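Batch manifest, entry 17 of 40.
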Amino acid sequence: MSENVYILGIGMLKFAKYLDRNIKSLAGEALANVQKDCDITFDQIEAAWFSNSLWGLFSNQHCIRGQVALSANGLDKIPIVNVENGCAGGSTALHSAVTAIKAGMYDCALAIGAEKVYNEDRVKVMTSFASGADIEIIEQFVKSLQDKEKTANEKRAKSPGKEPQVEKQGGHSSFMDLYAAGARMHMEKYGTTQRQLAAVASKSHNNSVLNPLAQYTFPLTIDEVLADRPVSYPLTRSMCAPIGDGAAAALVCSENFLKQHPSERAIRIRASVLQSGQLHGESDISKRASRAAYETAGIGPEDVDVAEIHDATVYGEIYQTEQLGFCAEGEGGLFAEAGKSGLGGELPLNPSGGLISRGHPIGASGLAQIFELVTQLRGEAGKRQVAAPKIALAENGGGFLGMGEASMVIHLLGK
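Output type: structure tokens
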């Protein structure tokens, strides 16, 4: 059995809208980049975990996705496991590879995620996200919103000079309404403001200007975020993750393998924790998973120097800042507004730009977080480099179940 597991190499490509490329192409580029990063050949990789969520829905590749994508790029014959765990798929792939190495099954394994989310059929894209929750509950939720809109339109129609408003199809996913509802409850309970939400968005967009692999690389002020197109109050477009494609990968190895292939750039995985949510009651998945990770690593939240947090919307960052123990409950908005999560702040969060600006190709997002944190711990992040980080945390949630995430993976990395 391997006591310690290390990330030996990382690979990623720029997240963007790639209408002219397929999953095989995206996965191949990430695979080539991870090889360049650590100079490991295919014959040294003993197993692979491949993360993807939507290939079947958009292109009918419902099965053997990893075998198809990786064999097309010269990696075959080895055990290849297909992973689908919503937005937490990439991190789940890494967790699985780490677990297998710890168990002594392999000495060198690959975790890779590739996803194409962008499609010219916008309605198809937006409705696809519903599969990340209990589809029956989501359908009931959407129907209730449609019934409310229908009632409102009928009232407008009865008013002189008022025409019924036609509901726009494909405007945004139902997940944005769920996040917006969470944000409104947080605002009502703790006094969090829309401006504090905008402060998170501005910080992350400005970080991504310094990240050449980010989907968005333009700066935004707080006022520009607030003035952007409304999505679902209090969220504006700049507060929500964009639609896009991409791939990312990490090569992990045992301590014995590292001794045979020495590298000063290897990063130790201090903890890898996967947990699931619950259908009934208040969600505590973030607290459960992070506390388990802290206990495994023998550290606390105060020891974390940099973190990548799952921010499908900016409310996610504010909420997780509290749940992960970085600030008191209810103070996530104040934490952001005070600049504590900026690159030069008390605890830099999402230096990559996060999901809302780096991009969110579902099956690859968790491994993109790992790419950023490994880059930070190596001191190779350039102008967005955090000052001398030693401990990094990645929080990656997937789907909705009940009042919170259906799945969550926490990784703690150390130099």
